[in-house]
Amino acid sequence: MTPVIYQVRLVIKPEYEAEFNAWYEGEYIPKLMRETPHFTDVRRYEGEFNGEKLYVTDYDCTTETLALAIAEMRAPARAEDNAAFYRWKDRAITLHESVQLTQRFALPVPDDDDGG
């Protein structure tokens, strides 16, 4: 199985950052992970791009399970959660991109057997 990351990139208006991040990290992502078992892990990053704060969320799955994870994420039972996200998008998000990244290359980290 080939690892895949479903990546979401957001730029949030500064005046909404704290409130959005509290909701997104405290409610939206935990509930999404409970209701989308084919996403196996999630990480969220904060950085800067072109002078703006950029938030990147990586959801892990595999090439074999990505379609299932997307279907779970968009299931009718999640309609209200998805609508809540889009209300935030309309009000507070200036960039919203999602991309599916398939692992192309991995180099294992060597073991440090010599103790140093």
Describe the structure.
The protein is α+β, with helices and mostly antiparallel strands and 116 residues long. It has a single domain (3-102), classed as Alpha-Beta Plaits (2-Layer Sandwich), CATH 3.30.70. Helices cover 35% and strands 34% of the residues. It contains 3 helices and 4 strands, in the order E-H-E-E-H-H-E. It has helices at 17-35, 66-73, 79-92; strands spanning 3-12, 41-49, 52-62, 93-102. It has a 4-stranded antiparallel sheet with strand order 2-3-1-4. A hairpin with a 2-residue loop joins strand 2 and strand 3 (52-62). Helix 1 (17-35) runs antiparallel to helix 3. The longest helix has 19 residues, at 17-35. The chain is globular and about 50 Å long. It starts with a strand and ends in a 14-residue tail after the last strand.
Question: Can you tag this structure with a few keywords?
Answer:
3 helices; four-stranded antiparallel beta sheet; 116 residues; alpha+beta; single chain; Alpha-Beta Plaits; globular
Brief synopsis:
The chain has 116 residues and is α+β, with helices and mostly antiparallel strands. Helices cover 35% and strands 34% of the residues. The protein has one domain: Alpha-Beta Plaits (2-Layer Sandwich).
Secondary-structure blueprint:
Blueprint: E1 3-12, H1 17-35, E2 41-49, E3 52-62, H2 66-73, H3 79-92, E4 93-102
Helix pairs in contact: 1-3
Assess the beta-strand content as a share of residues: 25-35%
Portion of residues within helices: 25-40%
Distance between the termini: 34 Å
How many β strands by DSSP? 4
Could you say what the CATH architecture is?
2-Layer Sandwich
Q: Which structural category do the helix and sheet elements fall into? A: alpha+beta
Q: How confident is the prediction overall: mean pLDDT? A: 94
